[in-house]
Recover the amino acids of this structure.
């Protein structure tokens, strides 16, 4: 794979492992009759590596399996084989940096139509791309930045769990895409979606938290993707004696919060300093958009967790984030 180049359509090197065959993304292809392409009939997970080891891989694969079960789709290979192919893809990447990886399982090829029984062979695709410096905002780094990002509350409502359950991490992503367009139109980093009842649900690719009177609050897990990073923060906060809980949160609460932050598997913990163009938290007082002390503490706890999981991986020989490497179970 040495000497491979990537086309100008991409801003970084991307390789794809399709059923065991690794090739540059610009030359990879899928069958036009694949139902993942035709209907978004697929599920996926996004992970990052930390020092070239997939971070919390076991937890992500657990959630992938749950998503598969909820759409009545079989894993196209054994879990051990999938883990082996993930490592094969990491080893084949001609870069020294850490990686962002996307693991996709599609319904596979079948005739036009909605009958899932017409697709008899699901397929996996493992994307690997450079974790470039702009992949993670400076604001997410505990030892740098110190500022926060801007988010908007979208007019788009989150899918109802009674329609397409957001706990399924599916390739059917138009709900999020349309909300993210609102963020981009407002030159914001992210968009916050609300439930049909008007409470905050989550962002397009992140969970959201607020701090009030030294207590951390986040939306209930019903009607959202119960994020891996979200669960880790619960564990770290509880271990540190920081009160944290779930509740129904109206969007107006963001403007009265002491701090607001969002979390994702790639970016970690990202402070928010503006909502709909208005300063929130510390920014209300200084107009300088500084992160709050609780958010900074959680950033440092999360960074330490990545280091600890990395050490556990090498000390135990188990994938980082496996039950043997962490005592916590994630739903």
């Amino acid at each position: 794979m040495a000497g491979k180049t990537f086309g100008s359509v991409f801003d970084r090197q991307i390789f794809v492992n399709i059923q065991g065959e690794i090739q540059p993304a610009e030359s990879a292809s899928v069958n036009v009759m694949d139902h993942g392409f035709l209907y978004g009939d697929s599920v996926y997970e996004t992970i990052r590596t930390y020092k070239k080891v997939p971070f919390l891989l076991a937890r992500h694969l657990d959630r992938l399996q749950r998503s598969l079960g909820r759409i009545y789709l079989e894993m196209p290979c054994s879990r051990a084989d999938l883990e082996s192919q993930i490592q094969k893809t990491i080893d084949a990447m001609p870069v020294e940096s850490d990686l962002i990886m996307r693991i996709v399982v599609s319904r596979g090829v079948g005739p036009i139509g909605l009958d899932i029984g017409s697709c008899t062979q699901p397929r996996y695709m493992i994307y690997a791309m450079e974790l470039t410096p702009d992949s993670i905002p400076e604001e997410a780094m505990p030892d740098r930045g110190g500022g926060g990002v801007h988010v908007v509350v979208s007019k788009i409502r989150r899918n109802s769990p009674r329609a397409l359950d957001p706990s399924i991490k599916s390739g059917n992503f138009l709900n999020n895409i349309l909300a993210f367009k609102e963020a981009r139109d407002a030159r914001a980093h992210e968009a916050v979606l609300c439930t049909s009842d008007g409470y905050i649900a989550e962002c397009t690719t992140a969970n959201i938290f607020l701090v009030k009177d030294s207590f951390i609050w986040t939306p209930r897990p019903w009607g959202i993707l119960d994020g891996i990073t979200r669960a880790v923060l619960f564990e770290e906060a509880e271990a540190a004696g920081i009160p944290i809980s779930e509740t129904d949160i109206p969007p107006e609460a963001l403007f009265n919060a002491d701090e607001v932050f969002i979390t994702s598997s790639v970016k970690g913990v990202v402070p928010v300093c503006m909502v709909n163009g208005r300063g929130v938290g510390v920014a209300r007082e200084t107009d300088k958009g500084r992160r709050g002390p609780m958010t900074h503490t959680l950033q440092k706890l999360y960074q330490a967790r990545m280091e600890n999981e990395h050490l556990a991986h090498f000390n135990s020989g188990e994938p980082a984030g496996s039950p043997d490497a962490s005592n916590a179970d994630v739903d």
